[in-house]
Amino acid sequence: MPAEPLLRVEGVAKRFGPVAALDGLDLDVAPGEFLALLGGSGSGKSTLLRLVAGFETPDAGRILLRGEDLAGKPPQARDVGMVFQSYALFPHLSVFDNVAYGLRREGVARGEIARRVAEALAMVGLEGMERRMPHQLSGGQRQRVALVRSLAKRPSLLLLDEPLGALDAGLRERTGFELRALQRRTGAGFVMVTHDQAEALSLADRVAVLEGGRLVQCDAPRALYDRPATRFVAEFLGGANLLEGRAGADGAVECPAVGCTLRLPPGAAPPAGAAVPVAVRPERIRLLPATDAPQGANTAAGTLRELAYRGEAWVALVATAGGQVLRVVLPGGAAPPPPGDGVALAWDDDANVVLKG
Ligand code: ADP
Ligand code: MG
Predict the structure, then answer these.
(1) Per the count of CB atoms within 10 A, which of 50, 188, 219, 276 is most buried?
(2) For ligand 1, atom 13: residue with the closest CA
(3) What is the C-alpha separation between 22 and 12, in angstroms, rounded?
C-alpha cells in the first residue's frame, strides 16, 4: 500500500434511528485499486458508498480523498463518481444527453463535451448509439451507459453499487471482464458493491467483507479464500465446513462432532485444552468408498446423504460418524457412489485453516 491512499475511511459510523448501518469502519483504497465490498443484505455496503459520495453525512469518523477531509463538501464538488444500484438513466434523454449531463452542469465547452462523450461511448463499444433512448437499449447496454456517464467527468474514484446485479449470468460475466478492463484503462480507483462472492473474487484486487456495519476482513482474493479469519468469512465465501475442535497435549485437535482428529499445518500450535475453530473447504475433501477408508488424522467415516450434479462439479452431503454433515465438492466427471452408501473422507493438513473467531 503506498504512503498516501486514494481513499481513507477512518472510524466512520452512521445510524438510522435504532439501526447502526456502519459501526466504526476503517478502510483504505489505493490509487488505481479495484476494491470489492462484499456482504449480506443490510451489512452497510450502500451506506458506505453514499457517505463517500456525499449523499449522507457520517455521525462519527472522517472520510479523506488523497488526504483531504471531505466533510461538508457537496457530492458534485467531490472527485468521485457513482453508479447507482438501479441504473437511473434519465428516460427522456438520449444516450448522448445522459452521458453529457454531468459535463454540461459543470460548464464544460460544447466541443469538449462531444469529444468526451464519443470517447466514453467508444470505451464500452457503444459508438453510433448516441441518439438512442434508454428504452431502445438492452439491459447490458443501459448498464454501460450508466457506467460511462459516471466516468465522463474522469473521477479518480468510482463507486459502483451492484452494477451487474440486474444482468443475467452470461452477460454478467462478460460485463464484469469489461468493467475490469475499463478500470485498468482509466486508472481510477473502483469500489464495487456486490453480494456475489465469485464476482468479488474474480474482479477485485482486494475484497472487503462487511458484517453488521463492521469490516471483518480485507485481503487479496486468494488470501481471503485460503485464509479466512473468522467463521463468518469462511462460511460466507465458498461455504466452508466449520469444525469445532479442542487441542490435545500433542498439538492434534479432537473434533467429536465429526468423529475425527485434525492435524494442523506447521506453525499452528494451539495450547492444550484450547477451543480451536477450523475451516475446511469442501473442494479440499476427497471422497472414497468405505472399503478404501484411510486411517489416522484428517479422515472421517460417514454416509452419503445427498448428491447434486452441478455440471462442472458434484456436491455431496456426508453425515459423519460424529453426526455433523460435511459438504464435499468433487470435480465433475466420474459419478460418486449413490446416496445411502458408506463413504470415507480424507484431506491434507494444509486444508485445516485455524480461525481467529
Ligand atoms: P446493504 O447495501 O449492505 O444492503 P444498507 O447500507 O443499504 O445495506 O443498509 C444498512 C442498514 O441501514 C440496513 O439495516 C438498512 O435498513 C438501514 N438503512 C439504510 N439506509 C436507511 C435510511 N435511509 N433510513 C433508515 N434505515 C436505513
Ligand atoms: Mg445496498
Answers:
(1) 188
(2) 42
(3) 7
> At residue 12, what are phi and psi to the nearest 5 degrees?
-80, 130
Which of 16, 51, 160, 196 most suits a substitution to test ligand 1, by most atoms within 8 Å of the C-beta?
16
Which regions of the chain are under pLDDT 70? 1-3, 86-87
Between CA 259 and CA 261 the distance in angstroms is 7
> Which residues have CB less than 5 Å away from ligand 2 (the ion)?
46
CA of 45 to the centre of ligand 2 (A): 6
CA of 44 to the centre of ligand 1 (A): 6
Strand (E) or helix (H) holding 329:
strand 325-331
**How far away, in angstroms, is 232 Cα from ligand 1 center?**
20
Beta strands in 17-75 (DSSP E): 19-29, 34-39, 60-65, 68-69
Question: Is the CB of 312 inside a 6 Å radius of any atom of ligand 1?
Answer: no
Which is nearest to 25 in space by CA: 36, 40, 14, 38?
Answer: 14
Find the ligand nearest to 39 CA.
1
- Residue-by-residue DSSP string for 146-213: HHHHHHTT--SEEEEESTTTTS-HHHHHHHHHHHHHHHHHH--EEEEEES-HHHHHHH-SEEEEEETT
Residue 56 CA to ligand 1 centre (angstroms): 12
d(CA 110, CA 90) in angstroms, rounded, equals 20
Which ligand is located closest to the Cα atom of residue 42?
1
Q: What is the pLDDT of residue 178?
A: 84
217-268 pLDDT, tens digit per residue, is 999 999 999 999 999 999 999 889 999 999 998 889 999 999 999 999 988 7
The pLDDT value recorded for residue 347 is: 97
pLDDT for residue 349: 95
